[in-house]
Write a structure and sequence with these properties.
The chain has 618 residues and is α/β, with parallel strands linked by helices. 41% of the residues lie in helices and 11% in strands.
Amino acid sequence: MTRRSFAASASTLLAGRAAETPRPNILWISCEDMGPHLHACGDSYSVTPNLDRLAARGSIYMNAWSNAPVCAPARTTIISGLYPPSTGSEHMRSMTRMPAGWKMFPGYLREAGYYCSNNVKEDYNLEKPAGTWDDSSKQAHWRNRAAGQPFFSVFNLEITHESQIRKRPHTLVHDPAKARIPAYHPDTPEVRHDWAQYYDNITTMDGQAGNILADLEKDRLADDTIVLFFGDHGSGMPRSKRWPYNSGLNVSIVASIPEKWKTLAPKDYAAGGKNDRLVGFVDLAPTMLSLAGLPAQPFHQGHAFMGQHERPARQYSFGFRGRMDERYDCVRSVRNQHFVYVRNYMPHKIYGQHLAYMWETPTTPAWERLYKEGKLNAAQRKFWEKKPAEELFDLRVDRDEVNNLAGSAQHKAVLAELRKAHLAHERELRDVGLLPEDEIHQRSKGGAPYDMGHDDKLYSADKVLAAADLASSLKPGVGKELKALMGDRDSALRYWGALGVLMRGPEEVGAARTELLALRSGPAPAAAIVAAEALGQHGTPEDLKESLALLIRLSDYEKHGAYVAMQALNAITALGAKAAPLKDQIQALPAAAPDPKDRGRADNFQKLKRYLLEEVLA
């Protein structure tokens, strides 16, 4: 019997035993794009009477992290119990798969006799195994289960989503003059309106949640049901959603455990109280199994924080950022009780790369306009400029994370502690998100990126991490090491070597010109694109001409696929006006054929084309 089949057999046996004992119902009420902004969390601007009553019966986990700052990878974390950088599913609206035989956690609850319903959003970056839900639809409800059957029911409320912040016309209920404006946002009418409308939507959502809770009471199930409420990541405002700061990852999880099931509550649970325990979305899968009397699966990377199989509180929580729609980035973060550490693996890219969807929110273009006009202070300007390799913030005195302490002598110890925690976590995960996106899929050969990432013949995890760490450190005097990476047999090391040269600018590009020319004509598209961008930015006129020729060739979605084409178009964007000779060829690029299974890749390609033609090269 294989290790996986043994684990599956053991799981089935334990599920059978759990089904013989009484088990609680579990209700989730989740909403979109909402941080810890319930009135019960201490937010005096918020009006949320229904969820405040739920919190009065339960406990609020104030330091919960969504692990990902955007919906699809955050929901992928929840449903799998795995960090997406370990499964190749970190990128927004990507699609990979789990290893054969692994299930999303509702599948294990169903084995134990639960009726599992989801109403209705999934948005997973992993292929959903058959049998995950009894019903996942707009009609899904606990009321559709068999008589007496325990249930796990999810209701997702969409009114707080980013798209609803900018929906006009809208008559404000919250007074925009009283909205708290974070230190990184400018204080403008657009910003105040968007924040006020966000809070209006929270109040509307609270009413919707109240209706669900009223149905539970009406069905006389409240005393038998554990209820959890949470948002799927930070607010939909720019620099919250999509960024793995506390502002993008911090959500409040309200957990209400009725008296009948108090034995399943953790020791630090106090009804009506706030809890500072660090928990993350990766912990939800093992926690739900634990509440049902089931142990975590061997592959789960989270820790149960309630139930029969509760684990000790974690010391650190971890976050990440990959491709966001049409723009590439690579960021990892970690927090303890007081500090947030951010590791930027692509510091040459500005924070506020143009994202068509984000620019629909009035705050974003207003903020950008003021930057171009030179009317922002230092904290507000930062979003529009390149990133440092490392950031460190003390949440006790800097809730908006604008004062970077990474260079502070008095914070060296905590910087070293969190850097060490980050690197240890990366090694444990064998983070395949450090590969170019096209290589995640190429190396996996149609299988699970998790399996690829745990095969030393396919992925040298420690070497790739070391290369990424060196390249993005921005340390001077490492030209020799970067050249060695560019000459390595592993295309991922060549990619990071070229990125390290690009990040350091014209002098380093000139010193590594021979190596960059070789990479540009080499077989690995990702490394070739980086080399072309570097030579186009800082090389000779002939270098620019040849680089543009390569980049436009690789921008053909039909010939080279979505990931290579998107990377190439991003490199062309970075070249700015230097790419003007390509305007007609960009216009002539074949449109990517829409495919319901492509998770928006064709749309991202079209957004890149449109931005180049209408903004960069207009």
